[in-house]
Amino acid sequence: MVRIGQGTGPLDQPGEPPRQGTQRNSMGVNTLLLKAELGKVKTITTTLPTEEFAYGLSRPRDAEGAREVTLKWVEHQPNPDAKPGPDFKAMNFLASVNDITTANEQRDFRAAHPKTLKQGSTQSKLKQHLPLPSDNNSDFTYGRQSAARPLEETRLTGPTPHIKNVVQGSFQQDWVHKNMQRQEFITSHQTKMHPNATKASEGHATKAKAALDPVEKEPWKIKKFSKVQAKTNSYNEYKVDEYTSFEN
Q: Taking the mean position of all CA atoms in its chain, how far away is CA 194?
């Protein structure tokens, strides 16, 4: 009689008969020998570190997170030790004034007469601005107050619209309704109109028609034979597609 669930080997599973034969401890870490239980994940055969272990490179947590960055605005501070770059525009101008034309002369001239970009001039220009009325008066309002509309504007545009009409889009519905009423007028103006013929186009059409329908000319004859009737029939008056029958 086989007793189920009594095996103590590394390959024995609960609820199954014990495995027969020799079982070594190394078999308990062999992924090819271990069987996964029904409805469960496969048994891990490797020894994992504790939960405090960090895989990869562990970096210290930054005290300034995304919330601090978005809620606090910090302006950029330029590096005071940064050196300005070369001013190629100024050096090229000096080289052209001194008749420097070749690449080798240009390189030597730049090494002997270096020019660097000016720092602070652009930043100072950006900070300079004309005085505004709101600099001294915080209650100053730019533009026109909607509460006090002029009479001329009211006459041209009508009364002040209610905010309810703006939110509900009633002006869009009015526009659609008016265009539906003007549908017949709009359709009549969308019909294709052929351009009027010009003198040049009429002349081209006349030449093309003359080339397609050439005028039949009488065959050339000597003047003394012009009134002589033909003794034979050459069938010159028939076209190729009309050769259905011939007279005897």
A: 38
Contact (CB, 8 A) for 114 and 85: no
Instruction: For residues 201 and 14, give the distance between their C-alpha atoms in angstroms, rounded to a whole number.
Output: 101
Residue 62: strand pairing partners:
none
Digitized pLDDT (tens) for each residue of the chain, 248 residues in all: 344 445 677 777 777 777 777 888 888 788 888 777 778 888 788 888 888 888 888 788 888 888 888 888 878 887 877 788 899 999 999 999 998 888 899 999 999 999 988 865 444 555 566 788 888 888 887 877 666 777 887 888 777 778 888 888 888 888 888 888 888 888 887 777 788 889 999 999 888 888 777 677 777 888 888 888 877 776 665 555 544 444 44
